[in-house]
Design goal:
- The structure is a single chain.
- The protein is mainly α.
- It is built from eight helices and two strands.
- Strands 1-2 form a two-stranded antiparallel ribbon.
- It is globular, with a radius of gyration of 17 Å.
- The protein starts with a helix and ends with a helix.
- 32% of the residues are buried.
């Protein structure tokens, strides 16, 4: 097993490579380096189980984006299960105060905690308009908004 820094560095390199492919042509599905993500999975899982929030978030990202799926059809056919797995890891990272995980739980998560987070977000939206920005007539929910949702979710 690699050390924590090496594992996270390998993950960051693999996710950056895949992200850059997606950015270059967002109109088509891009096969990730599934072998690299599969080889990283046991190491990242162990670190996540030992409390590393970055690894918890990485596991959620691997699952939610289907980064171990060989084909687009495999991704779509397994999407519900993948989002369920991702939601568990977003929740674990969110419990530890990792705000990007709270955000993803709100937007993409499934299950009781995600539902509760969305209900709380609705309350925050109506009660704390000062936490919502705007751009081109669209609301922007920034870090302060997500922090308030976190505070109420885990109070």
């Amino acid at each position: 097993m690699h050390n924590e820094a090496d594992t996270l560095s390998r993950y960051e390199a693999a996710i950056e490579m895949w992200t850059n492919k997606c950015i270059s042509n967002p109109s088509v599905w891009h096969k990730p380096d599934t072998e690299e993500f599969k080889s990283l999975l046991p190491e990242i899982t162990t670190l996540a189980q030992n409390g590393n929030v970055m690894c918890m978030y990485a596991l959620a990202t691997i699952h939610s984006n289907g980064l171990m799926c060989q084909t687009e059809n495999e991704f779509f056919n397994n999407h519900t299960e993948l989002i369920s797995k991702a939601s568990l890891w977003w929740e674990k990272a969110a419990e530890r105060g990792y705000l990007p995980a709270v955000d993803n739980l709100l937007v993409c998560g499934v299950g009781a905690t995600a539902d509760r987070a969305r209900k709380i977000a609705g309350e925050v939206e109506s009660q704390r308009k000062d936490l919502i920005g705007s751009a081109n007539g669209m609301p922007l929910y920034g870090e302060s908004f997500i922090q308030e949702v976190f505070n109420r979710l885990y109070a």
